[in-house]
Specification:
- The protein is built from 15 helices and two strands.
- The chain is an all-alpha fold.
- It has a domain at 1-112.
- A two-stranded antiparallel ribbon has the order 1-2.
- A hairpin with a 4-residue loop joins strand 1 (11-12) and strand 2.
- Helix 2 (34-45) packs antiparallel against helix 3, helix 5 runs antiparallel to helix 6 and helix 8 (156-175) runs antiparallel to helix 9.
- The longest helix is centred in the first third of the chain and has 20 residues, at 71-90.
- It is globular, with a radius of gyration of 20 Å.
- The relative contact order is 0.07.
- Residues 10-27 have low confidence and may be disordered.
């Protein structure tokens, strides 16, 4: 029987449109292609969470079959489970995020690809630290990073993944108030980013790990460690326009807003909230960002434009 990709099974990922979903579910499970995964990833990085949520059930069904097909199929499946976990985090569904991350880890182990394993470890870290299992999260991330850098000449993709694992570990350690470990992991990531910048990235996919990415993580790291001045210094050095995706630009504004609010600059925090909406409108409707908006309203309800902003962003969740 001829295999069908998810895209040809009746889902147009780029537009978020369903075409005959009942027939697609009734038919044999579609084949999960690399193009399907890339299209789903573009929805996430563009902040198109509603569209991704619509197509996710079909992607997950295809991922379950893809895991059994081959190592490459397992890698594609792991990528889908990672996306599902990341979207659940955005929706504040921690238990679901953890379940998806476990599925990602299973598929990643079947793939045997250390880069895929690192992505699964990073996905698992967030629900683990949210449920008080910081030590487990740090162990997974350190193990992934060690595996990626064990060889004498790691590839650019391996360096990229290793640096991102280190950044996630630094943020995790900071949330657990372990400053020495947080600074150590952040320094490792920055050294890897500098090393990566000296070598061309030939995979066709731009690296996630950059100096700006490190600066973005530093904002949250120092804020969690209680060093607001240093957090804001990193925010000032950050170049949001250079961040590669709408999701990252929104994250930069979110973390900066939190740091400004902690510093007592409520008006500055509101200015950052507006930037979140400009970058990725659905980001401002995430539960955590809506809570941030509510804090700003509670402190400075007189700020021009704040009432209208809160009305259109806090009322309707994603």
């Amino acid at each position: 029987m001829k295999r069908r990709s998810v895209l040809t099974a009746g889902v147009a990922l780029g537009a978020g449109v369903f075409a005959g979903p009942t027939a697609a579910w009734a038919a044999p499970a579609p084949w999960l292609s690399a193009g399907d995964v890339a299209a789903a990833r573009r929805l996430f990085t563009a902040g198109s969470y509603t569209r991704l949520d619509q197509v996710l059930p079909l992607l997950l069904a295809a991922a379950a079959h893809s895991t059994e097909q081959s190592p490459a199929g397992a890698a594609r499946a792991a990528d889908v489970w990672v996306l599902a976990s990341q979207l659940a985090v955005k929706q504040d569904r921690t238990e679901a995020a953890g379940d998806y991350a476990k599925q990602a880890g299973t598929a990643a182990r079947r793939s045997g690809d250390p880069v895929v394993l690192a992505a699964a470890a990073r996905a698992a870290a967030t629900p683990l630290r949210r449920t008080g299992r910081t030590g487990e999260a740090l162990h997974l991330l350190q193990e992934a990073r060690t595996h990626l850098t064990a060889g004498p000449r790691p590839t650019a993709a391996e360096l990229d993944a290793a640096g991102m694992a280190a950044l996630t570990a630094a943020y995790t350690a900071a949330q657990a108030h372990r400053p020495d470990l947080a600074h150590d992991f952040a320094a490792q990531a920055e050294q890897t980013a500098a090393r990566l910048a000296r070598h061309p990235h030939t995979t066709g996919r731009p690296p996630e790990l950059t100096a700006d990415q490190c600066a973005l993580y530093r904002i949250g790291i120092h804020r969690h460690l209680g060093d607001i001045d240093t957090a804001l210094a990193h925010a000032r050095r950050l170049r949001p326009a250079q961040m590669p995706t709408a999701e990252r630009r929104a994250r930069a504004a979110t973390d900066t807003a939190r740091a400004l609010l902690d510093a007592g600059d409520t008006a500055g925090a509101f200015a950052q909230l507006r930037l979140i909406e400009l970058a990725a409108p659905l980001e401002v409707r995430r539960p955590s960002v809506r809570a941030l908006t509510a804090r700003v309203v509670g402190l400075r309800p007189d700020l021009p434009g704040l009432c209208d902003y809160a009305h259109r962003t806090v009322v309707h969740p994603i």
